């Protein structure tokens, strides 16, 4: 790849020369480079992919449902009997569920499509940068950077909706760059289609790249302002149609014959957009749901339970600290520097300059999405930063390409030195936060980057004419070595991420974490086991569910628990209250009707004996006292249903699960 970059890039001043609008035919070495990139990504991402098992049980349950029933696949139902959907639109479930329909549901059939999406995203990033710069080496660099970003290595082997979301956003960026070449309205409409389906993957998050793409086309496209505006109108119409058909489907389909649209308060698609899954997250109106609401008189010891929010406090530094720093920040400073450098370098270029256009696509994408994530006030996960990865990869590659073109000029040498030093030193800072893990990596990365940067500064000193050829060769070597050194930290952490098993609702990158010990760790594991449904997969209980013959085998609070039961028993389970037990379904009257119609066999609820130390004013370390409640606390999100069931039916206990058989007539 480095040889391709060196061999195909011209030298000299480029500020007054428009960048190429067509990509020259690929040479054999360039075809080989692309083959190695895509094949290497596929091998790395598919390697031992089933180590992640069912990944996030919540979405795995919906994938199983979609593999069993076409209506469940269409709506993204959590169960094949179609009580309610997952709390996101169904595009991701279409891909994984259809794979299950074709090949049978399994970890492999669910996760392999996710890994193949990574290959497609890498290919699209390569194509976008290669076409914008006219240089396939720059495209290869962009693809490599994306493939070795830790959050990409994490989430494209996982079953959350983020993989298909980012693939569609990347497709939108690629189509926009294609549209910029000759002001092609059809390519811009395809970008609108891609973003429309991105909206159906994760709602407003899929549209957050829209300002970057629209503004860039309005500025750069080589046609009149009137045509540019009409093309944008056409793209907007394509977006509305590609997203709106599904919204219209949910409106026209009778409520009584489709699942409840989870995440909404009124069973409508748009309520989720403007509330729980949309503006509510930015405005802080969506409540955090990671903590269990304790009964009156109890409080959780500060810092004991991990919050659902793991993205840090709002602010500009959020992307660079904590888990987000490990997942995405490696090349974000270098990408921002590249954006500034390219704008300076191409300042006097024509309005239609394609390299500057690519910088606007990737730079504005990075800034707008990074700014939005920094400002979000409710329910964030660090893996959301996956949406920044294509922008950072593309921007770094465009910046390196521009500085390579100017490598014989002072701007090229100083800019390359600054870029390489930024990459290397920030990688050192991030790796220092996990200082016990392979300490030699951070020192090797920082030292190599520093040497390359100093060498470029020395190369900027004027030399006699006889030394200029040698200086040019030395500059080329230093740039290549420095850039790859700067990628060393991200690559090492991505490589450490791949073999680890990732399960649950908030996976993290990097090497395996040390096993926690002590009472805090014990309670952490117990509460996490509850949240992910592990406490409910007792073999005896699973066998009981498998023997049921009703429409739903059981009903239980929280979607993740219902999904865990479905995966263990392969029977439909009602998720009372949806993902966070906050959806208004079923009402008590609806639940009573389901029971009366003999459509449900069991009602399940976990019971917990709370430590006395959790009582208001309790003593640290206390586990039992005379004041501990005689009856264990029942962990429910819909207490009115729990009270009605416990009043009319008798519980049997399997472990700490109260099991109510609802098939007899109520007492």
Overview of the molecule:
This protein is mainly alpha-helical and 667 residues long. The chain has 27 helices and 6 strands. Strands 1, 2, 3, 4, 5 and 6 form a 6-stranded mixed β-sheet that branches. Helix 25 links the parallel strand 1 and strand 2. Helix 1 (2-8) runs antiparallel to helix 7, helix 7 runs antiparallel to helix 18 (389-405) and helix 19 runs parallel beside helix 21 (468-486). The longest helix has 28 residues, at 225-252. The chain starts with a helix and ends in a 6-residue tail after the last strand. The model is unreliable at 5-20 and 304-309 (pLDDT under 50).
How many helices? The count is 27
Major sheet size, sense and barrel closure: 6 strands, mixed
**Structural class of the secondary elements?**
mainly alpha
**Separation, N- and C-terminal Cα atoms:** 75 Å
Mean pLDDT: 88
Radius of gyration: 27 Å
Q: Helix share of residues?
A: 55-70%
Please state roughly what percent of the residues sit in beta strands, choosing from under 5%, 5-15%, 15-25%, 25-35%, 35-45% or over 45%.
Answer: under 5%
**Overall 3D shape:** elongated
Name the poorly predicted regions. Answer: 5-20, 304-309
Tell me which oligomeric state these chains represent. single chain
Tally of DSSP β-strands: 6
């Amino acid at each position: 790849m480095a040889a391709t970059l060196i061999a195909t890039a011209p030298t000299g001043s480029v500020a007054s020369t428009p960048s190429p609008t067509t990509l020259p035919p690929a040479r054999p070495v360039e075809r080989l480079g692309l083959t190695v990139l895509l094949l290497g990504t596929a091998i790395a991402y598919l390697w031992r992919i089933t180590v992640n098992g069912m990944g996030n049980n919540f979405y795995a349950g919906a994938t199983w449902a979609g593999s069993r029933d076409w209506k469940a696949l269409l709506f993204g139902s959590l169960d094949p009997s179609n009580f309610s959907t997952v709390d996101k639109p169904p595009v991701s479930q279409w891909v994984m569920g259809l794979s299950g329909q074709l090949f049978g549901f399994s970890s492999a059939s669910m996760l392999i499509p996710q890994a193949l999406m990574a290959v497609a995203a890498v290919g699209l990033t390569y194509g976008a940068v290669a076409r914008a710069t006219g240089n396939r080496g720059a495209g290869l660099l962009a693809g490599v950077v994306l493939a070795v970003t830790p959050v990409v290595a994490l989430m494209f082997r996982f079953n959350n909706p983020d993989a298909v979301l980012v693939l569609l956003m990347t497709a939108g960026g690629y189509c926009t760059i294609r549209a910029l070449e000759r002001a092609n309205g059809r390519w811009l409409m395809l970008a609108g289609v891609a973003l429309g389906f991105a909206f159906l993957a994760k709602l407003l998050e899929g549209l957050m790249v829209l300002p970057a793409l629209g503004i860039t086309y309005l500025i750069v496209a080589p046609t009149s302002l009137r045509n540019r505006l009409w093309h944008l109108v056409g793209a907007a119409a394509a977006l509305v149609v590609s997203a709106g058909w599904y919204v219209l489907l949910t409106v026209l389909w009778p409520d009584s014959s489709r699942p409840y649209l989870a995440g909404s308060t009124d069973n409508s698609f748009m309520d989720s957009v403007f509330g729980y899954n949309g503006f509510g997250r930015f405005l802080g109106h969506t409540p955090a749901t990671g903590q269990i609401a304790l009964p009156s008189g109890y409080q959780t010891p500060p810092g004991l339970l991990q919050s659902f929010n793991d993205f840090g406090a709002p602010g500009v530094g959020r992307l660079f600290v904590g888990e987000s720093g490990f997942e995405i920040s490696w090349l974000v400073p270098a990408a921002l520097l590249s954006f500034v450098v390219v704008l300076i370098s191409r300042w006097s270029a024509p309005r239609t300059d394609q390299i500057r256009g690519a910088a606007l696509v990737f730079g504005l994408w990075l800034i707008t999405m990074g700014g939005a994530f920094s400002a979000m006030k409710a329910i964030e996960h660090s893996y959301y930063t996956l949406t920044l990865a294509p922008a950072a990869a593309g921007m770094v590659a465009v910046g390196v390409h521009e500085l390579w073109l100017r490598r014989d000029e002072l701007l090229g040498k100083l800019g390359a030195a600054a870029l390489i030093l930024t990459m290397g030193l920030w990688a050192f800072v991030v790796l220092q936060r996990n200082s016990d893990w392979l300490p030699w990596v951070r020192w090797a990365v920082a030292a190599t980057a520093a040497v390359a940067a100093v060498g470029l500064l020395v190369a900027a000193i004027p030399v006699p004419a006889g030394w200029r050829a040698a200086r040019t060769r030395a500059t080329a070597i230093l740039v290549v070595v420095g850039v790859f050194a700067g990628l060393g930290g991200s690559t090492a952490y991505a490589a450490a991420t791949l073999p680890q098993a990732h399960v649950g609702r908030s996976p993290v990158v990097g090497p395996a974490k040390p096993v926690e010990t002590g009472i805090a760790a014990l309670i952490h594991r117990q509460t996490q086991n509850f949240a992910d449904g592990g406490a409910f997969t007792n073999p005896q209980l699973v066998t009981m569910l498998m023997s049921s013959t009703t429409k739903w085998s059981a009903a239980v609070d929280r979607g993740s628990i219902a999904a865990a039961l479905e995966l263990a028993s392969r029977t439909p389970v009602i998720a009372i209250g949806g993902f966070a037990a906050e959806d208004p379904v079923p009402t008590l009257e609806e639940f009573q009707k389901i029971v009366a119609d003999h459509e449900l066999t069991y009602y399940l609820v976990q019971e917990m004996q709370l430590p006395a130390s959790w009582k208001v004013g309790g003593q640290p370390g206390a586990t039992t006292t005379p004041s501990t409640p005689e009856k264990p606390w029942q962990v429910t999100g819909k207490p009115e249903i729990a009270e009605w069931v416990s009043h009319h039916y008798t519980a049997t206990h399997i472990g700490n699960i109260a099991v109510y058989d609802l098939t007899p007539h109520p007492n």
